[in-house]
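>> received
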Amino acid sequence: MIVAGWRARLRWLAPSGGAAMVMVAALVRAPAHAGSESREALILSGGLTRADSDRPVERVFVVPPGTSQIDLDLTCAGTQHDACLDFGARGPGGIRGWSMAGHGHVHIDALSASYGYLPGAIEPGEWHVMLGAAPDHDEGERSYQVTIRLSDRPTGARPVLRSAPGWFAGDLHVHSGHSDGYHLDRLGHEVPVSVRDLNVDAGAAHLDFLAVTDHNTVSHWIDVDRAQATSPDLLLLHGREITTARGHFNAIGERRFTDFRLGPERPMRRLLADVAKDGAFLSVNHAWLSSDQWCAGCGWMDRDAETLQEVSGIEVLNGSTPVLAGELPGWTWWADLLNRGERLVAVGGSDVHDPIDGHAAIGRPSTVVWASALSEDAIVAGLKSGRVFVRAVPKEHSFVDLAATSDRITATMGQAISQGRLTLTAHLRGVAGQQCSWIRRGNVVQSSDVHADDQTLTLSTDAVPGDWFSVIVRRHGQPSLLSNAVYVQDERGVFAGR
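>> returned
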């Protein structure tokens, strides 16, 4: 935080010859927005009258070097709205935006900005809050307060669409025209797929969230923010597919741009560690593929434990990658890593590039996450927890939750339990007439028919350290649901593969 020790320089700017007026400013503790911690804030207070409507009114504040974001909040005394005045922001490089009365919050950082504002680097030096009094408001003074918060790291609050915990379904891998998402228009011209196009299709697929993961760039983030402002039911996640000659991986929930280039001094392990510094969920994409002319770098080359410790997940299903009927090469790749002692979250994504004419469809497959809320931070935390399953086909009510119980202790997907006699429980919905296979260390140990639309199956077994259990639900041999794993640890709390 870069506020302590400021000496704010404040003045009223009037036309040449105009009388200067004294304004009051104070450094106070002000509440932060939801999703960010409380911080010192600069408060600018004053009043405008009708006479101020025909002259420029600006308040000055100083931004220290190293500032990453600015948040402005305007409130007016005696009004029901957040703002009763027009206002804007001007930095050393020029005007960054303008808000009409009634819109009282503004956020600006290098990669995103509120409607009506330009993103970009936060230049140090004098910044100005520009104020405009409406010419038709009454003759009395209208008191205002501008709260200014600065931060040296991108911590801007991202929206919470639902505050209650639950299961949320989404697609973790789609592309727009900011990279290689294109389709043909009615005249046969190649045109970019917009974030808005993807948003509409995700809503039609009954998804709760969508990650737009364009290759290497973050230029789509501003479109994500713009689309989110008009999308109250679908959460749009900030994401990126980091694409290298040694493999591709998704970063879900990024807050900053990290250079994607590898080199002699920057192997994959270091790149992964750099990208993960802001808490993003990292998952390897379509790792089972070969790198060829069709997809350079699509296969994952660095499979050593030191590199993979920087990864949280593995894409086990990819909707744009055809495989032979019933085969699960991505799941097998994930299972082999678990057998080595890795604890990785299995996820899926459509990898859609052309939602209109392409052979892949948004939400096929989808990843379903137990999260504390429908927000980007909560979805990322839910993914990392491992209480996640993959829905191979877009049937919104199909569901699986796996748990293991021993001596009154229960572990859910992504968690570990001690060795001994276990009771495995698979709660299934929407898959009547299908078959559930119990998996131990990647091998089927038993299969059970599902007879009801809401059914709980159990299996009792002895487990030893290094075991892990999951289930696969199939319809006519084709996978429909893939659970994540419950792990078995030793007396030291260590899970180690064979």
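>> The mean pLDDT is 87.
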